[in-house]
Amino acid sequence: MAEQKAAAKVGRPSRSVDEEIQAVEQKLAALKQRKREIERVERERNQKAILALLRAEGLDDVPADKWQSSLPKLRELLLGGLVAKTPKVAKTAETQEAAASAPGAH
């Protein structure tokens, strides 16, 4: 009788450590995917809000080349100290500094 109770209690076999690791890795991968999706949706929402703001202010009529030439100043205003962390901007800043310090630049 005791054997029957023991056999009845035997349900799902316990997971091995490798199976536990695999399950946790799968959950981690799913969470990372969910995070990427949330960030993508938030970025799209932000882009729409920025475009709506630019339209409301009539700035969507400004030619792209004018935006291009104004981007370094805008980036500095909007991002402050984070500008140097952007590789493209950092490279542009280095080029500008080199040009300014070149002989005959002033």
Describe what is shown at a glance.
With 106 residues, this protein is an all-alpha fold. It folds into two domains: 16-61; 63-101, no CATH class.
Notes on the protein architecture:
- The protein has two domains: 16-61; 63-101, no CATH class.
- Helix content is 75%, strand content 0%.
- Residues 99-106 have low confidence and may be disordered.
- The chain is an all-alpha fold and 106 residues long.
SSE topology sketch:
Blueprint: H1 2-9, H2 17-56, H3 64-79, H4 87-101
Features:
about 110 residues, about 75% helix, mainly alpha
Number of distinct beta strands: 0
Query: Which regions contain 5 or more consecutive residues with pLDDT less than 50?
Result: 99-106
Radius of gyration: 29 Å
**Mean pLDDT over all positions:** 80
- Helix proportion of residues, in percent? over 70%
Strand content: under 5%
Write the element-wise H/E pattern from the N-terminal end onward: HHHH
Q: Biggest sheet, open or closed, and with what strands and sense?
A: none
Distance between the termini: 100 Å
Would you tell me the structural class of the helices and strands? mainly alpha
Question: Which term fits the overall shape?
Answer: elongated
